[in-house]
Specification:
The protein is mainly alpha-helical. The protein is about 55% helix and about 10% strand. The chain has one domain. Strand 1 and strand 2 form a beta hairpin.
């Protein structure tokens, strides 16, 4: 039973890490294509955490989001709620 619990926690950790990595990659690609930043500039804007730029981009509530000197177009469904 204990071994199964440890295995389940390990699997959830791997899945959550993969989800965050995908969000960060999406953010970096959006900055590179929409704001014409190089790889280093895009990675510098990809701040982690609950109040970081990656989460702001994934959960934006408007059509665009302002990150530094860059304006990104939001593509998530949350940006079109109510209109």
């Amino acid at each position: 039973m204990r071994r199964l619990s440890v295995l389940a926690i390990f699997a959830l950790t791997l899945v959550s890490t993969g989800v965050q990595a995908g969000a960060k990659d999406d953010f970096i690609n959006a900055v590179k294509t929409q704001c014409k930043k190089d790889d280093a500039g895009a990675k510098a804007l990809a701040t982690p955490g609950r109040s970081g730029n990656v989460i702001k981009f994934k959960t934006c509530s408007g059509a665009t989001i302002e990150i530094g000197d860059c304006t990104l177009q939001c593509k998530d469904a949350s940006s079109s709620i109510g209109g």
